[in-house]
Each structure stands twice: as C-alpha cells, then as structure tokens.
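Lay summary. Proteins are chains of building blocks that fold into shapes, and those shapes determine what they do. In this project we predict the shape from the chain. Here is one chain we studied, written as its sequence of building blocks.
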Amino acid sequence: MSTLTALARAQARAGGEAQPLALVRHLHIAERPLVFIPLALAGEANAPLAAMIGDEADSPRLLVVNQPRNRDERFAFAAELARVVVPYLEGFATQAEDVASGGGETRPRFRYAPQVFMPSRASIGFARLLGRSTRFRRTDGEYAVDAAVPVLGRWLSFLAERAEHPGSCLLVAATEVLSLHWASGQSGLEDLNLAALMAWIEPPGGLTCLQAAAAAEDPLQWPPAGPATDPGFDNEVLAPLIDAYGRADGAAALQRAEAALARALSAQLLPTWGLMWRSIALLRALPAGGHVGKRWDEDRAAFTSYVSYLRDGDGLPQPRRDGAVAAARRLSWLERAQASYAAQRAFDDPLAMAEFRMSGEAFAGRVVAAEPDRLDTSGRRRTLRPRITVETTDPLTVETGTELRAVTRLTQRATIVSVEPGGPGEPIRVVIELAGGMGRSLVAEPGTVPETGEWLCYCSLPLGYQPVTDFPATNETPWTHGGPPVPALPADEDAVEDWS
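And here is the predicted shape, written in a compact code that computers can read:
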C-alpha cells in the first residue's frame, strides 16, 4: 500500500466516506459487458455449484448443479455455461477493420471485443481452474463431454491469462477495479467483500457508510459474492437441499427438490448481481483516462489474434505449463506492461501522478526562465534545443541526463541539464532541454516551447516503446533450463484435475 493510499484510507475512516484515488476511469467499460458470478461447493476443489450470468441487469440467468459431486452434472453445467458464454464472446468476432502494423502494411482487428465482469480475483481464479478442467476434455470415446465444453475451457483460459496483463479489460474483477478508484475506511482484506466495499463507495439510502459496511457483514442480508459460500448457508440450507435432491423419488419430488435448490441459490446470488451492475454504473460515470482507448485497442488485438488462432490455426488448447523460454518471455512482457501501465495511469491522472511526485520520480513547478530560440551548435549541424528553468518544491531523485515527459506535452522529449538545490525553504531549480514537437525549422513554432509563468508537471516514467529482451529460440533452450521442450500435444493426463 502506498503512502497516499494509506492516507486516503485514514481520511475515509475519519470522515466516514470513501475517498477518491483517481480522477478518471482507468479501464474501458463495454456497452454490453457480461456479468458472471460463480459459486463453488465448499470442501470440493473447484466444484461448480451455481452461476448467475447475463449481459442485461434485469435478465439474470441462473445455472445450477443439483448434485455437485456428480461428474455428469458438473459437465452438464459446463455445457450449459458454454452455451451462454461462447456465443457472447464469438458475437464480437464479426466486424473487422484494417489497422496499420508498420512498414506500410495493415492487419485486421475486430471493431469490438467482449468484456466479462466477475466479483473478485478469487472468482477469476475459479474461472481459470474451470478452464483448465475443461479445455482438454475429449468429445468422443470414454467420458466424452459435450463439444461446447472444451471450447469454453479454451476461452476461459484465454480470458484468465489476459486478466494477468496490467490494464487489460477483457476479464475484470469488480473489487479490484473499485479499489483502484476509491479508498474505503476498512482494510484491504475487507475490500475483497464486494458488499462491504460498495457500502463505503455508495451506501444504500438512509445509511451511513459505517452502518452499511456493518450490515454488509451479515451473510443473511448480503451473502458472499463467491465463489465461496457462507458456512452457515452450507450447513443449514444447502446440505439439506442437496440431500433432499438425492433422496427424491419420482419426477414430481425431483422437480420440487430442484426448484427449492434453485430458489435458495438464486437468493444467494441476486444481491451480488445487483452490486455488480451498480459498480459498473459507478465506473461508467467517471471520465475515461487518455490512455484507456489505447489499452482497449490492445485488448481488441489480442481478442482478434485468439479468434484467428481458433479459426485458422490448429486450435489446440493452451498447454498446462509454459516452457522455459516461453515463461521468460511472458514474464518480461508482463514486467514491461506493468511499467507502461503505471506510466499511463500517472500521465492520465493527477492523483496517480502524486504518488510519483512523492517518490521524486516526478515533479511539478512553474517555468521561471525560457530560451525558446536556443540552438545546439556542438554537432555538424545546428539543431533547435530550447531550454527552460522550472522551480519546484517537490522532492527530487532524478539526476542530470534523465529523460522526462510533461503531462501536457507528451510528444516532446525533455532532458535534465542541471539541478540546483535551493536553500532551506527555497525551491529547487531544474534546467531542462527540449527536443521534438516544435516544427522542422530552427525557429520553434508558437506555443511549442513552455513560456515563463506556465505550470508544468514532468515525470521520468517511460511512456513510449520499451525494447524487448532478446531470448533464445524455443529449440535453443539451454540444457540448464531443460533443453528444447517436447511439443505440447494434448494428452489424456492433461485433463486430470482436482475436480475430476
């Protein structure tokens, strides 16, 4: 937890209401997101119990596993879930556009992409394991499953993998994105409870945040958002209903048992269903950050690539484990994506930038001197290199030679020439040299060089392209890392999971 987040939590607790951590929305909100709330059976590894799913707030669809310990019913549930999820996902793979890919060439990209909202990171973990448990299943031979089941598994695996990418919005955990934008007056662990977190952000009418948060701890009023259920519900309600279903004799008794179980599980899921759509509405009301669209373009590109793989490639399921080179590439990719995401958020949002101003990686101040027509004559050709002097009271850790970007001048490179510490109580003077974004002549175009008196915020976070680490080819994996891996082909043992 950062210093500013800790301060915001303390202020929320003292003031009795959530404090904003962002002035803009840092994720894309689709016009038609799919809300997916799963429940799992306690005591069984990733055993699906029920799910509420749908893309319209007033039309939830309830899926129930009447006997979660029965393998056939589990896979019947997976097939039913697939008939909801897969058409929703594939429905966005219809309209494509051509986008530039460098070198004067273009590549196709779908105009739209799906977006799935789940209550929490634990729910995403459930979806990941459900994907692993279904994507290797055979549709013929012994223990065959419905043809839609492995397709669902591959899609869930893709979405769960994409959810690890910083800033991706294809699969979203509601508690995670709400905590990114608001600070509650409770602990981070308590923020994992969607009802408690929403109580701080938007308490029900007539209640204070503290009263609403206390009420959210009552599992009878606000059941857990899944995938885990409340132990009291498991013992007092669920177990007798499942037992009654198992003892049902005759079609009428079986139908009554199924209806009773569906009513009980629906009552567990409906409060969370309402909270999910409220959270989406809250986020949608915030203005989008400047880089949100760019990250959504990356999501659309990833979605397009995966659809192409399923349609035009061999369509094999993702391997259970990455090879050494693939794992190293993925880790490097995630690290670069995290650095880029942090920089984008900072340049989009003054509250996010404040964290880096406190750490000395960014500073804000007023221009006190400017040389807009300065030329650099040290090389073979004269080049326009204006300099400005900025006074700031922010602490600085950046050094001479550090490259910066101004929040309001992202296309203009800036390099620190010197840093002159002031005396006690006096500002620091930073001399900065500018390059780019000023026209092609030796005279800067009007307005391209900051003028005296202008207030600027500079940051040293890398916002542009970051070079990719050079890794060996897969077939050149060194012996220290297991040597070249065996091609990942589906095998019977791949389908073995704890829930099987």
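What the prediction tells us: The mean pLDDT is 89.
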